[in-house]
Design goal:
157 residues, 6 helices, Tscrpt_reg_MarR-type_CS, transcription regulation, HTH_MarR-typ
């Protein structure tokens, strides 16, 4: 039997509130390190995945490409990131963590992970895994239905 509207709304509210508070823990920790969430996300991506085309960073950290340029500018001023033009295609510009940026992430990421661990400690490890699996399933389903909705809007037949 499909969930009722009431159950769906209850889930939406609970999911939103839980997300808000877990993110509040993460944001507070990140701000204490002198960055905002987006700067930290870009730097963490570059640290763990290596240099990335600036045009593709936005989709990986869920931001528009215009905002990524601004964030990379800020990280460059802090000497945590540098731009590098592709030798084969000068239109392609990469961002990569500097040595200082890599050291920064190495120094702060372990304690940041502990902050997140503490923020979700209201659930056991097994519950955390179950919720993670269920949220991935929910996310994929919501993404697919969103895409199908866009297709039906574009094709009025």
């Amino acid at each position: 039997m499909a969930p009722s509207t009431t159950e769906a709304l209850d889930l939406f509210i609970a999911l939103s509130r839980a997300s808000q508070w877990v993110i509040a823990h993460a944001d507070k920790d990140i701000r204490s390190k002198g960055l905002n969430r987006t700067e930290f996300g870009v730097l963490e991506l570059l640290y763990h995945k290596g240099r990335q085309p600036i045009q593709q960073i936005g989709s990986k950290v869920l931001m528009s490409s215009g905002n990524i340029t601004y964030v990379v500018d800020k990280l460059e001023k802090k000497e945590l990131v540098r731009r590098q033009t592709c030798a084969e295609d000068r239109r392609l510009i990469y961002a990569e963590a500097t040595e200082q940026g890599r050291k920064f992430i190495e120094d702060v990421f372990p304690s940041h992970a502990l902050v997140i661990q503490q923020a979700v400690s209201g659930l056991t490890a097994e519950e955390q895994q179950l919720v993670s699996d269920l949220l991935k399933k929910l996310g994929k389903s919501a993404q697919e239905s969103f895409k199908q909705g866009k297709r039906s809007e574009e094709d009025p037949t």
